[in-house]
Structures are given as C-alpha cells and as structure tokens.
Amino acid sequence: MSQKVRFKISRFNPEKDKKSYFKEYELAVQPWESVLESLISLRNNVDASLSFRQSCKAGICGSCAIRINGRAKLACKTSVHDEISKFGEIKIEPLGNLPVLKDLVVDMETFYDEMKDTNPWIEAKKNSGKLIEEHRISPKDADKIEKSSECIWCAACFSDCPSRESNKKYLGPAAYVLSHRYIFDVRDGKKKERLKKLVDKQIWACAHCERSTENCPMDIEPQEIISKLREESIKEGLIHNDGARHARTFEKSVKKYGGLSEAWLPVGTFGFIRVIKELPMAIKLFFKGKLPPFFMKKIKNHEEISQLERNVNRNNL
Ligand code: SF4
After folding, report:
1. What is the value of pTM for the model shown?
2. pLDDT one-digit tens code per residue, 225-269
3. Among 101, 114, 124, 198, whose CB has the most other CB atoms within 10 angstroms?
4. Residue to mutate, 61, 98, 154, ligand 1, most ligand atoms under 8 Å from C-beta
5. What is the CA(97)–ligand 1 centre distance, in A?
6. Domain 3-106 adopts which CATH fold?
7. C-alpha span between 265 and 251 (Å, rounded)
8. What is the spatial distance between Cα 104 and Cα 102, in angstroms, rounded to a whole number?
9. Can you say whether the dihedral through the CA atoms of 289, 253, 295, 307 is positive or negative?
10. Strands (E), 84-197
11. Domain segments of the chain: what residues?
C-alpha cells in the first residue's frame, strides 16, 4: 500500500537563484521504492524542472550519488521506507565538496581530475632493461587489489570528507583507493614513486572519522585502505614527514610505557625547533593545568601491551 512521504529537496537554478533553498513535495510512495524511483516520479509527475543525475538504477554507474538525510548515498540503493523509519522525512541535497551546477547536479571535474592525477594505469616492471610483455597475476595477488578495483567513482566518500573540506590539498578517499589498486598490483613497477606522491598529496591528513567507510556503497572501506597505504609508505622508507614521525613516535611511546606520552608526541613529530615556537601556548597550557606530564611511568601490565604489539607486528595485522 502506498504511503504519503514528505520530500525536502535542495533547489538551485544559477540563472535565477543567488543561493540554494529547500522546496517541499508530498508524494505517494510504494513501500519498496528507492529514493531514485521517487525522484523520477516527482520529476515526471509533479515538477519537470527538477534536475538530478541517474543512469543504471542498479548501483553500478555511481551517477545518482546525492546526500540523503545528511549522508552521501546512491539514490538507487537507498530505500524510502528505511529513511522514513529513521528520519520521518526525506531531505535531499547535492554532494558536498563539489560546486553545484543545478539542483542536485554537481560539477565532478575536480573529483575526476584528482582521480586521473594518480596515474590510474599499470606502469609495467622492467626486466633487465626490457619491458615485461606478459605478466599473469595469481589469484592470491589479485585478491590484494580486488576491493580497491571495485570503486565506481561515485564520490560519496569525497562528498562528506571533513579532511578534504578543510584542506584542498588532501585528495579525498577515492583517489587514495584508486592508488591502492596500482600500488599493490604486482605487475606495477612504480610503487615507491606512487607512495611518495600520496605522501606529498597529504595522505597523512586523514582524520580517521570513518565517514568514507560508512558511505561507500561498494563496501570498499577507504579508511582502512588509507591506513594500509600509510603503513606501506613507512615500510618503503618514506619516514621524513610529519605523519610518519607522528605514527612512529606514537608506536615507540606505546612500546616503552604501554601508553601514549602526549607531551613527547609533538616533539617527536615536529622536532624541538618547531615545538619551541609554540612555547607561549605551552606556557598557557601549563598555567591552566593542561600540560601533559613530561615524565611517564610504565603502566601496570606493561608486558601484556608489549606482547600485543609483538603479535600485531609478527602477524602483520
Ligand atoms: S571509494 Fe566507494 S564511495 Fe568512494 S568513489 Fe569509490 S565507490 Fe564511491
């Protein structure tokens, strides 16, 4: 049986509007409908001026990605019924972190440019100066890149990424996912160069918010992929940067004390000279009683933490 549902849709026509606004619609919706089916019905029967993108209707092309009740999702894979049960209405906005062209249509140019900037093709290994012309890949090696090969370039991760919002040099999760697909491809010969480029392109600026992993319609887990790439960059010797120094200082502190020495973390990350410049801030923190202690004792059961750390490293977890 159909149900009346309230849709609040962001509208913007660059020829008439200075800024976007929400327009409300009420529509009779069948319980099995997707948000995309409702949008098509709205456009066909209620308001022909509504603009949005769509193509395959099957979660493959990625073109119908929009923000639904505050989160970027594929409209074709989102059930109206589920959204109504959680939020009572359906609020629809265009993807974030990209300029809006009209209503729910964004300009994807920046996103595509940054994806292309990762050199998304295999740069084959050379064998005694000769290019390897044929290189079969084992199922085990193919498994390593299976997930990251499934990206459909929908930009649902990019849209809600707070690191990208505050730092335009940070590429955004999808470009790191795409890089992973080539970095871990055994046929590629540019692993270190690719990792170096990612370090230069701010991969250590990821804030671990997990939004990309929650949003990804392909269950790729971009957040975990970013962590794996950072780890690989350290293994490849790319350690002279703030991110790697931060991670290594953190690790040393846990090994030594069983916990994090917050006072030494900035020193290990930025070095004494850069930290000295922040002395006025440290003095303020001291007088407010917020400066963490410089000398830390080993925690009780420190050996258990050390054992855990050894297990993680031995099993490469
Ligand atoms: S990583 Fe997932 S959310 Fe991001 S573009 Fe690829 S498919 Fe979309």
Report:
1. 0.89
2. 999 999 999 999 999 999 999 999 998 888 888 888 888 888 899
3. 198
4. 154
5. 14
6. Ubiquitin-like (UB roll) (3.10.20)
7. 10
8. 6
9. positive
10. 90-93, 100-102, 105-106, 126-127, 130-131
11. 3-106, 109-130+137-235, 242-314
